[in-house]
Amino acid sequence: MNQKLRRFYDRFVRIHGDPHEIALGFALGILVGMTPTLGVQMVLAAFLAAVLGWNKIAAAAGVWITNPVTAPLIYSLNYWVGARLLSLGKAVHHGAALQTKGFVYVLTKAPHVLGAMALGGLVVGLPLAVLGYWLALRAVTGYREKVKTRISRARERLRHERAARKAQRREGAAGKGPADKKGVAP
After folding, report:
1. Three-state DSSP class for 116?
2. How many other CB atoms are there within 10 angstroms of residue 123's CB atom?
3. Phi and psi dihedrals of 46, rounded to 5?
4. Dihedral pair phi/psi, residue 40, rounded to 5°
5. Whole-angstrom Cα distance, residue 23 to residue 142?
6. For 37-83, how does the pLDDT look when each residue is reduced to its tens digit (9 = 90+)?
7. For the chain, what are the domain ranges?
8. Helix (H, G, I), strand (E, B) or coil at 34
9. How far apart are the C-alpha atoms of 131 and 33, rounded to whole Å?
10. Residue 117: burial class (beta carbons within 10 Å; 0-12, 13-18, 19+)
């Protein structure tokens, strides 16, 4: 798992574009990922990022906050928060969805459930999006500063190597007479 996260991080910090726009796109992706739009999240996040002029790739990456492992936990939390804010009771009773009448009951409650999940997703998602913006901005700018430092060190090292070679050539040329340059002994 650490290898996959490292690979994601390495690819993420190399996304081309303005760091601010990358971070905004990532935050937008997180926010969209927290809403009950499973199945269309990446398309929705990329579309909104394009409309807002933010980074579409970063937005699509941010959506992956909800994935097959985290989605049940996130959506349960979002529903719980939204239901509390809307003063809703328990929408589905245990085992109700397994019965035919229960399934119809669940479908009639779907607008309330989706509304609670959407509200909860916004309430939980906004602070996560702000945190995601900050983390993405730090990661991208930190990576770029590190690359700049490496490049400037490499350039400085090359300058010193060139200067040293030039000095060696001058010293070698100063010690030889005109006949020496042609390979003829004086």
Report:
1. helix
2. 15
3. -65, -40
4. -125, 10
5. 13
6. 888 999 999 999 999 999 999 999 999 999 888 888 999 899 999 99
7. 2-142
8. coil
9. 14
10. buried
pLDDT in tens, 91-125: 555 454 445 555 566 567 778 888 889 999 999 99
Residue 98 CA to residue 106 CA, distance in Å, equals 10
Report residue 3 as tokens. 């290898």
Helix axes 71-85, 100-175, angle to 10 degrees: 120
- Identity of residue 66: T
Q: What is the spatial distance between Cα 147 and Cα 141, in angstroms, rounded to a whole number?
A: 10
Kindly state the average pLDDT of the residues 163-168.
Answer: 87
Q: Which two tokens stand for residue 87?
A: 């003063």
Looking up tokens 């990446």 gives 42
Question: Burial level of 167, CB count in 10 A (0-12/13-18/19+)?
Answer: exposed
| Residue 61 and residue 29 in contact, taking contact as beta carbons nearer than 8 Å | yes
Q: Residue 33 CB: number of other CB atoms within 10 A?
A: 30
Token pair in block for residue 138: 């730090």
Query: Which residue bears the tokens 């001058």?
Result: 170
Contact 91, 116 (CB under 8 A): yes
Q: How far apart are the first and last CA of the chain?
A: 73
